[in-house]
Amino acid sequence: MNDLSGKTALVVGASRGLGRGIALATAAAGASVIALSRSATTFPEPGGAGSIQAVVADAADSSVPGSLLDRYDPQLLVLVAGATPLIRPLQHHTWETFSANWNTDVRIAFHWLREALLRPLRPGSTVVVVSSGAALAGSPLSGGYAGAKATQRFISGYAQEEADRAGLGITFTAVLPRITPLTDLGRPAVRAYAARNGQSEEEYVRQLGEPLSPESAGAAVLELARADTAGVAPGYLLTGAGLQQLA
User: What InterPro entries does the entry give (predicted)?
Assistant: First the structure.
């Protein structure tokens, strides 16, 4: 997939934040992008040969992945969608708020990767599961979010094992973005963790290094999509400085 012209990419969770940045970057690189979100979304016309088609559907609905994979036959599948965690300490969560990301994010990864294997996607396809850096560092103010994101990474690894066992030629990888103030998801978390640490938001962000932007997330996914599949690792931490392979 060194050349994305003529390729189809399906970005699940493309309406905002990192997902939107990934959809725009992939279209700018020449792909025909199917941008899936739960609500109607508009996108600017991409330059070059690429295009973006907005599709409204619930990514967590078990009937959606098979239907859309059959309809669009993507060579690049990127899963970004998930629930926004409620930011509060453990004792202020209910089980329903604590488990929200298990019931949404993990569910999405399970259904989409299952269908990618069952269909299966064509040989040479790449599947990118956007998890979170919280899967490595924990996230004490967001309930079960960190555990759910770690499980997404595990599911990606399981899918790769099954693809290899069946000789499908599909590459699965997990990308774990570091917390960032540049998205609607990250901004309230940055504010809450800064307050918890007795820091200003500026101090907290400064210690994280260069903030991760939607544009840099798009560039990172393009790097993976264009790479020789044999060189794509099972997982990466993603920061403002780019991808860092995980051990």
Answer: NAD(P)-bd_dom_sf (IPR036291), SDR_fam (IPR002347)
Task: Measure the CA dihedral 189/59/23/120, to 10°.
Answer: 130
**CATH code of 23's domain:** 3.40.50.720
Contact 80, 13 (CB under 8 A): yes
Query: Does an H or E element contain 12, and which?
Result: strand 8-12
Q: Is residue 237, in this structure, part of any structural domain at all?
A: no
Which residue range(s) make up the domain with 97? 8-177+212-230
SS3 content of the chain, % helix, strand, coil (to 5): 45, 20, 40
Q: Is residue 104 part of a domain?
A: yes
The answer to whether residues 127 and 159 touch, using CB atoms and an 8 Å cutoff, is: yes
For every residue of 185-232, which 3-state class applies, written as one string?
Answer: CHHHHHHHHHHHHCCCHHHHHHHHCCCCCHHHHHHHHHHHHHCCHHHC
Read off the pLDDT of residues 13-72 as tens digits, 9 standing for 90 and up. 999 999 999 999 999 999 999 999 999 999 998 877 899 999 999 999 999 999 999 999
At 89, the amino acid letter reads: P
- C-alpha distances (whole Å) from 15 to each of 4, 64, 151, 226 are 21, 17, 24, 23
Give the chain's domain count. Answer: 1
Whether residue 92 is contained in a domain is answered as: yes
In a domain, 2, yes or no: no
**What are the structure tokens assigned to 116, written together?**
């990618």
